[in-house]
Amino acid sequence: MKKIFKGRAVVKGNASAEALVSKGGFNTLASYQHSLMFGDKTGKCSDQNNPDLYKKPIAGTALCMPQTIGSTTGGLVLYCAACMSRQPACLLFSKEIDSLAAAGAILSAVWTDNPMPTVDNLGDEFLEYVQTGDKITVKEDGTVEVER
């Protein structure tokens, strides 16, 4: 079964990946801290306050969330993850993206070979529908296909 959602393409691009879903906010620094400091190439989430993601690999996934939360280093953390090839395949937001996450996604697209197509404003229905493990396809125009 396939369902299509339309959002705003913040960083245009195409991506296909397995969904990793956080129903709560994504704390970028807490989630990537161990991976960036200690060399975990899968980018396992180290945020013990996020039961949806804790200890699950982030790298290469379609990271689905309402918004990012936490430190003002969030954009730099996403950029560093991309520099180290530990970034999600794409970032998908049900709500409007915050400026820090947008900065990290844009810097990754401009300054690395590891862009993260990023779409926001997908709506609450998107986050209610998508489940970890669903197949996600992102298109340049902000169309997101979710397939079970």
From TrEMBL:
GO terms for molecular function: lyase activity. Residues 40-109 form the Phosphomevalonate dehydratase small subunit-like domain. It holds the Pfam family AcnX_swivel_put. InterPro entries: PMDh-S-like (IPR012016), PMDh-S-like_dom (IPR002840). It comes from the Bacteria. Keywords: Lyase. This is DUF126 domain-containing protein.
